[in-house]
Each structure stands twice: as C-alpha cells, then as structure tokens.
Amino acid sequence: MKELAKILRSDLKEVLLAVTLGVLAVLSSIGLFATSAYLIAKAALRPPAYTLTLAIVGVRFFGLSRAVFRYLERYFSHKTTFNFLAQIRIFFYEKIEPKAPAILQKVRTTDLLARMVADIESLQNFFLRVVYPYLVMFIVFLLIASFLKSFSFWFSLLLFMGFITGSVLIPVIFGKKSLELGKKLRTQRAALSNCLGELIAGYIDLKTTNSLTDKVLKVEKLSQKLLVFRQKAALLNALSESGFLLLSHVTGFLALILAVYLSSEGKLAGVLMALVVLTVQTSFEALFPAASARQYWEENKESAQRVFSLINEPPPVIEGVGKSTLPLSHSLEFKEVSLIYPGNSKPSLERVSFSLAQGQKIAVVGPSGSGKSSIIKLLLRFYDYEGEILLGGEDLKGFAPEAVRTLFGVVSQESFIFNTTLEENLRVAKPGASREELLEVLQKVNLTHLALSLEVGERGERLSGGERQRLLLARLLLKDAPIWLLDEPTTGLDALTEKEVLENLWDVALGKTVLYITHRLVGLEKMDEILVMEQGKIVEKGNYAEIFKRRI
C-alpha cells in the first residue's frame, strides 16, 4: 500500500483540492440544515422580519453552495481517481514489459490479464472509498467539534463518541465477515476469469470433443457462486450502512436530550436547540462513506499485493543498461553457454558452443525440449545466462537489450498475427513504411492477391496456413534486420506448402545471417552447417550431406 500512497502523492494538488471541496460540500449541507432549523425556530417567536434576514440569506447561500460544491467535489474526486488509475496502469506496464516473456512462466495468461484489468480497476477505490472519506471525515469532525464546543463541551464529546463508534466499532463488527467475503469474491472472480479464458481459447477443441456443454455448465456454476457472494456482500454493506444511519439518529436523539437539559438549566438558548441537534445529526453525512471503507481497504490491499507481487519480481535481464552503439560485424559466437530457467533445476542449455559468421546460415535440429528455442531467447536477451555470447567479437551483455533486438528479425511458431488489416500487421515491423514498400514485400512473398485492407481475423484465421507464414515472412523482410532467427517457421503446414514457403524463404534470404530452428532434416540443403541438439547439448555437427549420410 506504500507504493499506492507514493503514486497518489504525485497528484497531491488534485488530492488536496478534492478533499477541500468534499469538506466544503459536507459543511454546506450541515450549514443548510442548521440555519434552516434556526430560521424556523426563530420565526416561531414572531420577531421583526429584519432579524431573520441573515438566516434567510444563510439558507439560500448554503442551498446553492451545497449543490455547487457537491458537483465540483464529484468532478475533482473522480478526476483524481482516474488520473491515479492511469498512473498505476502505466507504472504496471513499464515494470512488467521488461519481464516478458519470463513472467508468463510464473503466472497464467488469464491471471496476468485479471491483474492488469480487474485488480488495477479495483484500486480506484483506494482513493475514492478509503483515503478520501476518512480525510473528509476527520477534517469535518475537527471543525464541527470546535463549533459545538462554543455551545457546550458535552456536544463535542457526544459527537466524538458517535464518530469513534462509527469509524471504529461498526467497521470492526462487520469487518471480519466482510474480509472473508472479499477473499471469496476475489478467488471466485479469478476462477471464473480463468475458466472463461479456457473456454474462449479452446472453443473449437471443446466443440469437436463434445465437451463444450460441460465447460459452459462449469462457467455458469462459477458465475452463480460469484453472484451469491456478491449478494451476500451487498447485504452486509446494506447492514453496515443501516448501522451508521441508526447511529446518526441515536446520536441526534441524545443531542436533543442534552440540549433540553442545558436549556432547562439556562445554559443554552431555546432557539438554538434545533440548530445544535441538527448540526450533530447531519455531521454524520461525513461518516456515511466510511461505512464500506474497511471492506474496500481489504479488497485494495489484496489487489495491490497481486499487482505489486509481479511488479517487484526482479527482471531476468536489466533493460536500458549497456552500450547502444552496435558493432559493424554481425557474427555470433556461443562459448560454453548454459541456461537454467527460473524455477527449474534442469538446465535447458548446457555448455553450448558454436559460431555463426556474418552471412552464414546455420540450422539447429532436435526434438522438442532439446533447447533449440532457448538459443533464440538468449540472443534476444529475454533471459540471463552463464558463459559467453559474442556479437561482432564483443560480449552481448555489454549492449543494451533493446539495441541488440534491432539486429534481429524473428519468425517463430509463436509469432502473433493481430486481428486487424493486412496493412496494419505489416506495419508492426516498420510503422513508417510507405504503401509502395508494403506492396513490394507482398510481391516478394507471393501475397499480391491479398488486399492491404483485408481484415485477417483473430490470429489470422481468414488466411490459409501458407498465407499466414508468408505474412510473417513479409514482416521479416520489411524490418530488413541483418540477422534472421527462424524458429519452426513452417509449423502446421502440409509438405507441399512447406516446400513452397521454404523456397520462398531462401530466395529472399540472400546476404542475411540466418539461424534456423527445426525438428526435422527437411529443406536444409542450403544450410552452411547443421547442429543437432539433444537434452540441451550439441551432440553432432556438420553440413547437410554429412549429417544425412550418418542418419542413413
């Protein structure tokens, strides 16, 4: 919660303005009731009309100011809240982005999305429902208590007892149950979010295996349980608010008894009795928003822990550190490189050594889990490693990761196609590309039959398998990086389409340095060298003819 307070302090002027307007709005409301009560009591004595002028003006003033200050208070308190939310979202993304994709090994995608959306959204209540109400309540109490003390110390004491009961005792009574319900709500919401994510992502598989109905029933069951918890939380909140309302009436009644006693003793003018009683009772308007403050506090505390537990995770590689000027030579060399992913005990790469000269093409072949893709992740500086990787003869760790990535064009089995137009998907690689450049790369990859305005659908579902791979290849060409990292670029294609895509690929790869990851010895005739990997180690090296001869 310290981190939230720190972010909130960056908008201190807006916070103070919102609190000031909140205090003025409550004071205007109290003033309206108090002056109205005084005016009625005074008028009942039938004094000369001019003696009522000040009270009449006061009623008009407080009536207008109450509306104005309440509007301004709502405007600035919500503006502050939205600014606060925007800062948290930006802060969260800036901290999480350097940790991707490593962070996805620790949390599920749906869980990460829930933290980014639902948990951060719930943090809007930190200021609006927790900090703000208590600040307004405290200031109003001090001002009204000082005002009531001018009539009698006992009125101030009565107000103090009422505020202590409302701000401490009632929240304690309802707090434990509220905390339990809050935890159940968050757990149930996360479970529903995960289940919905699985339903959407696996819709086709669920339908083809006749499991869709079971999954939908599970979602409905989770939704129903969530609804029950929300109803219980709403009931508890209603009871809490009723407790505050009862407290205000009881305190007002006690203030009336005290006023009658003091008036009978000649210590309080009878015409002021209604003013004092209504001042005490309407002061609880400042306390009502605090009715649910404890519930929101616990919810915010839990959400903040979920959000900041990810933010405070140490990044696998420190971004922004190192040289941004890259060497002219784009040769690569691995020297005794080892990698153990966080949370794993078994190395994914173990003492791997090889070199890739500028303009050379090397294929890395091996079964799934042999460590092939880990080589690309290290080159892109997604993870730290033991050993040494040289870029142009210089240590890769000496360069800023974001600068290193400008050298690489990547096509992998996980490359993402966005649900937008073909043109926008191409501009991912080069945002400032001209229309002529886009048409040129489409011609190179044989996609001229597709219009740039074509909506490609979710993950490119409106394209064939071959068209999707050619689109990724077009992005690769558009970036025009000197080093190509190709990780299973023909996954899921039939043999004929795979052959066409590979032929297309090698035709446009002239002059490029290429590291090609695959699990089969197919289409590797043009490779300068082939590395065979098993269990994180290079077990065989040679050109295509040598490797093929050994396998016969």
Fold and architecture overview:
The structure is a single chain. With 552 residues, the protein is an alpha/beta fold. It folds into two domains: 1-312, ABC transporter transmembrane region fold, CATH 1.20.1560.10; 332-550, Rossmann fold. It has helices at residues 2-9, 12-43, 53-96, 109-122, 125-149, 153-201, 203-208, 212-264, 273-282, 293-311, 372-379, 401-404, 422-427, 435-444, 465-479, 495-508, 544-551, and strands at residues 332-339, 349-356, 361-365, 386-391, 394-395, 408-412, 483-487, 513-518, 529-534, 537-542. The strands form two sheets. Strands 6-7-8-3-9-10 form a six-stranded mixed beta sheet, sandwiched between helices. A four-stranded antiparallel beta sheet has the order 2-1-4-5, with helices on one face. Helix 8 (212-264) packs antiparallel against helix 9. The longest helix has 53 residues, at 212-264. The radius of gyration is 35 Å and the shape is elongated. The two termini are 65 Å apart. The mean pLDDT is 85.
